[in-house]
Amino acid sequence: MLGGMFRGAWSIGYEILRLVLRRPVFGVMVVPIDGDGRLVLMRRRDTGTWGLPGGMAEWGERVEETAARELREETGYCVRRVGRLVGVYSDPARDPRMHSICAVLEAEVEPTADTPLNPLETIEVRAFALDALPAELAFDTLRIVDDWRARKPAVVA
Known about the structure:
This protein has 157 residues and is of the alpha/beta class. 27% of the residues lie in helices and 34% in strands.
């Protein structure tokens, strides 16, 4: 009897691990535009490059809640208004760390007072004019910003 229970528990545990480890993770990114029409970017601690704020959704969180939380944690800005869906990016090669599917939202943002940044993720935060973006952009940041500017369809590879 114990052997059957062990096999049953193992098969459930194995299925959970298979689902977690063999499936893409779901994340949310923000194209944050401040009151002066500038793009707010964060310099990533892991690569030293500039990128859009974003991260993985937590259990029970809606997409717009994930966007607001990640924006606040990584930039110290808050969402004034969520705009359109920029795109859903799912190319397995878009992020060299893992296969992630990412929903990208545009948002009007403003700085907040006394919001500590996550020092494990963010080195620096700066707002850039759209015609003066830094050359060192992380992962597919440039593609996402270009798609946002061109108002491309919402589902992209």
